[in-house]
Automatic annotation (TrEMBL):
Residues 462-519 form the PucR C-terminal helix-turn-helix domain. Residues 7-125 form the Purine catabolism PurC-like domain. Coiled coil: none annotated. This is PucR family transcriptional regulator. Belongs to the CdaR family. The lineage of its organism: Bacteria, Bacillati, Bacillota, Bacilli, Bacillales. Residues 291-411 form the CdaR GGDEF-like domain. InterPro entries: CdaR-like_regulators (IPR051448), CdaR_GGDEF (IPR041522), PucR_C-HTH_dom (IPR025736), PucR_C-HTH_sf (IPR042070), PucR_dom (IPR012914).
Amino acid sequence: MHAVKTLLNTEGLAKCNVVAGEKGLDRYVKNITIMEVPEVSKWLKGNEIILTSLYAIKDDEHAIANLIYELDRVNASALAIKTVYLDNKVPESIIQSGNTLNFPIILIPKEIKYLDIMSPVLNLIMNDSSIDYKKIELAMKMLNEISLEVEGYEYFMNTLKRFIDFELTIESEISYVLTGDNHYDIQPITEEQIQELLIIKKPVPMQRNRQVHSLETVISPIIVDGKYYGNITSWAPYREHLESDILLLEKAVSILSFEFLKKKVRIDIEQQYESDFFKEIVYSESLNQRNIEIWGKKYNLSTTIGYQCLIITNYKNIDAFRKDLERNKYRLSEAIKKIHHYIIVAFTQESISIALPKTILEGDILDKIQELLKKLLIHHSSSIVIGVGQELKGIVGMKKSFKQAEKALQLANQTNRLGIITHYDEIGTRRLIFELGSSEELLNIYNETILMILDDEKGFELVKTLECYFNHDESLKITSDCLYIHVNTLKYRLKRMEELTGLSFKRVDDRTMFYIGCIIHESRQSM
């Protein structure tokens, strides 16, 4: 396969001038074509030099401005323009786009005909064709005869390696697809690379990191329903591959895409089944006993076993968390179930819910789950919140434990307890506040304490002091150190709050009023 810079030496193109995108002259060329239609990119297959006068879009500034971005998106190789309809100059927007994207823009002199360029280029491409169709036919016959369920992906890859002379690796975003490759020295491809692969949908030359080295590779994406689910990587520069290698990689991933789709459908059904079952338990007011009996057998549910529920989410960056959760839910579910297959894992768009049976509860089980979450949701490791309920007996106990986990999650959010586990047992007197919700009596307590303090010109400073005071168990020294103030200043502030409210820190009931007021204030601040 020839690069654009090589073909510039052919008769016809040798008389043309590169006016932009010189850094992209290493792009490879499979074909050369003439295009004088709007939306030219929809007719291309990739790796073409396009000859055009831009006549079809000469009066459409928007189409001209976006042309190079569209051609680059479909992996075209270069654009050669005759400017007879453009006042004999290449539009500035095309020049800028070419330089930005490193996409070669070639100016065709008016005396050069399209045929003068096409014939020499096509002759060189056709005479140098490296497509071995017999080899591809044999390879596809052997690959199609493989039963991936029986013989596995490792056997599939070993068969493919018989026809391509470079190291090949396979990666799967679906953890249930066991590819047999465990190359821990290979760093995952980036989100930007994934987006490029989704646009091009064909084998693409890309840099990949392996151990401490950045290497030239060819990545062939496995795409299912428009989403990236894995790849085959050939560990050699694109230019070293025969055209038949690239074609064979493209056909191989098409087989895998279909197999991944079948696997994904089955896994989606199983995961949805499990999530629906869990929601039936924790949200339904009247449990369907028949469903509980049928579904319960699958997860070994018992009315005599204790269950502990936990919920994981990220309030600080919910949109990014939702996206990463969707991408990693298969890996998360599998990794958690490797701890024990009777663990129930359910997903919503914004959270993960887990029910742990008492039979597997041990000292470090929650720590193991937390480490898995931080590893697989690495961008959220320091900002996830984890609420844990008590261990309670039976299906009814599981439901109650889930409600407790929700309240622990609420506390974690209110007190900014990020990246750590918050147990329901830690809520203390806040349980009463959660149970009473937004009752009129709680509102009265808030009005008689915090609201009266906030009316003071230094109200926010006083409330912050009050919160710090209770967070440090009413220790004058620790609180003053935390606020970087003198103990006498702290005493003055406490005295001022007593004057504003008519309450006294010396009376237990009054201190309780202040404390409940603080909790309500925290709740309002986090809403």
